[in-house]
Specification:
Number of helices: 6
Number of strands: 2
Structural class: mainly alpha
Number of domains: 1
Oligomer: single chain
Radius of gyration: 17 Å
Distance between the termini: 31 Å
Helix content: 40-55%
Strand content: 5-15%
Length: about 160
């Protein structure tokens, strides 16, 4: 019979799981852009790009972005002086996917990339991240075929399955 781990304190769970970056620790441009995106509209002034979303959706997108920023901070790639969502680059996302695939299944990877893309769109609505949209589409195919993700490259996922 397998022995169950009885050490389930929040401190022990936090030390074994990757740390997401709290919003107050985000780079200034990202934090300000997120606050602006979530700004509610008034009668004469439109709200931010995320004001139409339910609070749970905004929270979900922010959590995914927090996780990516935490990954970038752990890997020493989180500059504080870039524009909002400027950290969402192909090399950063590929490395994040590599970290994710070691811990989660392909469906979760797909959801993480989709939510990261949506968060980046909400933060910097004037920037089209076409490569993220393309990567999202490739991951969708991976999910439908039920194959694990093996490795990524610049044009998207080049090997799926085992």
């Amino acid at each position: 019979m397998k022995k169950r781990d009885t050490n389930t304190s929040p401190a022990s769970r936090a030390s074994t799981s990757p740390r997401s970056l709290p919003i107050h620790e985000w780079p200034d441009a990202d934090r300000r852009a997120w606050e602006d995106a979530c700004r509610p509209g008034t009668r004469l002034q439109p709200g931010g790009t995320a004001c139409y979303l339910a609070a749970v959706s905004r929270h979900d997108f922010a959590n995914r972005y927090r996780a990516v920023l935490g990954f970038l901070q752990r890997s020493g790639r989180l500059p504080q002086n870039l524009d909002a969502a400027a950290q969402v680059t192909l090399p950063n996302v590929e490395d994040y996917i590599a970290e994710l695939t070691a811990r989660v299944r392909s469906v979760t990877v797909y959801n993480c990339v989709y939510k990261l893309r949506r968060a980046a769109e909400l933060l910097a609505s004037d920037v089209l991240l076409q490569w993220v949209v393309d990567l999202d589409a490739v991951l969708d195919v991976v999910i439908r075929e039920g194959k694990p993700i093996v490795r990524t490259r610049a044009a998207g996922l080049d090997q799926v399955g085992s």
